[in-house]
Design goal:
The chain has 245 residues and is an all-alpha fold. The protein contains 12 helices and no strands. The chain is 77% helix and 0% strand. It starts with a helix and ends with a helix. The model has no long low-confidence stretch (mean pLDDT 93).
């Protein structure tokens, strides 16, 4: 059971599945749980792809709406919350690091947060409609996988800027060699699954990731749980839109 513990921690944190742990996780288990983020994304992607295949014959926008609703329910809108907090902070922070971090901690959502979340969901549902119509299940599987590989890459390559809390434990105890191995396997599998047709969508997604990373470094000097969640949402959206175009 101890070998499965980091996976169960990742599953409990990233989804709303009824996962129960016998005791609170320690720092080492929390750090190792990051290694299982892409695997949780794979499970989520396969689930969504199977649902989409069942609904594909319905046609129209309803299958896309149902798939997106299930997607949000399964993840508990956790990453959308991070996106909303980051959007408010980036605009309201006015370029100041301390002000940006303070706004990010505020649980209230302003108009900027609402607009950004609505736009991302609109892009997702429009892209899903195209993906389902073409029965492009590879794109639907890859979006959650790459979305959850993104925070692993962030934590490997950037400092965590909030002392204390869950994120600092993840960053402190993340096994670097294991993280590199997991990312290498994830990206190799992604390239094999996407093939030649996935070159430009994946290149655009990579460009978005590095732009987001650069923006975080310039604004707050690293990453936080909110910016990691925002990155998940934006990378998922980029993958879907890239394959739908």
């Amino acid at each position: 059971m101890s070998g499965l513990r980091p996976f169960l921690i990742a599953l409990q944190f990233l989804t709303r599945l009824p996962v129960r742990l016998e005791s609170p996780p320690d720092g080492a288990a929390l750090g190792r749980s990051l290694l299982f983020y892409p695997l949780v994304g794979l499970g989520l992607g396969l689930t969504l792809a199977m649902l989409a295949e069942l609904l594909a014959e319905t046609g129209g926008w309803l299958p896309a709406a149902i798939v997106l609703t299930v997607w949000v329910v399964l993840t508990g809108a956790l990453h959308l919350d991070g996106l909303a907090d980051s959007a408010d902070a980036w605009v309201g922070g006015l370029g100041d690091q301390e002000r940006t971090l303070a706004i990010m901690k505020d649980p209230r959502s302003g108009p900027v947060a609402v607009v950004v979340v609505v736009l991302v969901l609109l892009l997702k549902i429009a892209a899903l409609e195209q993906v389902i119509a073409r029965q492009d299940w590879t794109a639907l599987v890859l979006a959650p996988v790459l979305g959850r590989a993104a925070p692993l890459l962030l934590f490997l390559t950037m400092p965590y800027v909030r002392p204390g809390g869950l994120g600092s434990e993840l960053a402190r105890h993340l096994p670097c060699r294991g993280g590199i191995a997991v990312l290498s396997a994830t990206f190799a599998g992604t390239l094999a699954a996407a093939g030649i047709r996935g070159f430009w969508p994946l290149l655009a997604t990579a460009a978005l990731f590095f732009w987001l990373r650069l923006s975080m470094i310039r604004r707050i000097g690293g990453t936080t749980g909110d910016t990691a969640g925002a990155t998940i949402e934006l990378i998922e959206c980029a993958v879907l839109v890239g394959f739908a175009l």
